[in-house]
Amino acid sequence: KEYSGNSQLPKKIDTLPDVNLDNSKNAVLADKISIFEGDITTLQVDAIVNAANSSLRGGGGVDGAIHRKAGPELLKECITLNGCAAGEAKVTKGYKLPAKHVIHTVGPYGEKTNILQGCYKNSLDIMLDVKLRTIAFPCIATGIYGYPNLPAAHVASREVRKHLEKNHDAVDRVIFCVFLPEDKVIYEGILQSYFPTQ
Ligand code: ADP
C-alpha cells in the first residue's frame, strides 16, 4: 500500500466523508487506490485526467505538460471539441503519451465545490462509458485556479469513493497523482478515512 496515516495531520478533520461507507466493500475498494508522486505524463494508464481550461487549447501547469508530451495532434483533436464548461469532461486520445486517453476537465475558478465534484464525477463517468479501467487524477483546480488543497482532496476522495461503491467491478485502479509535497501529505492523511484498509 502506498499510503498510510500521517501523524502530522489532526485526526479529526473538518469535512468527514459524507458518503455512506459500505464497510463490506472496504477491502475491495482500498485495493484499487494509489498515490503517485510525480509527473502525470509519465503514467501508463488507460486515462490521465487533464486540469484544462474551458478553451481546451492548452495552458500552463499540468495542461501544458500534457500537451507538450502528447504532441500537436492532441491540440488538433481538442480544437474539434468546441471547448468544455467548468465541471464537465471530454475525452481524447493520448497520442505520444504513455496513457491511452486524456480526459479533459475544467475546474472551478475559486472554491466552487459542486463544480469540482462534477470534474471528478464526469471524468469517472467517461471512464465507465469508454470502458477504461485505470485512471490518474492530478489535483484539479488547486494550482492556477486556486482551490484550497485540503478541501479539494476531500472532494476528490469522496467522489472517487462514491463512484467505486457503485462501479468497482469496472475499475482496476484510481491513482491520485500528487505533484507537490504538500498534496502528498494531505492525501496520505485523508485517504485512510475514505478507503480504510482495516
Ligand atoms: P488548475 O488550473 O486546475 O489549478 P494547475 O495545472 O495549475 O491546474 O494545477 C493543478 C495541479 O497539477 C497542481 O497541484 C500542480 O502542482 C499539478 N501539476 C503541475 N504539473 C503537473 C504534472 N506534470 N503532473 C502532475 N501534476 C502536475
UniProtKB/TrEMBL annotation:
One of its GO terms (cellular component) is nucleoplasm. Residues 20-195 form the Macro domain. Coiled coil: none annotated. GO terms for molecular function: ADP-ribosylglutamate hydrolase activity. One of its GO terms (biological process) is purine nucleoside metabolic process. This is Macro domain-containing protein. The lineage of its organism: Eukaryota, Metazoa, Ecdysozoa, Arthropoda, Hexapoda. The chain holds residues 40 to 237 of 237 of the full protein.
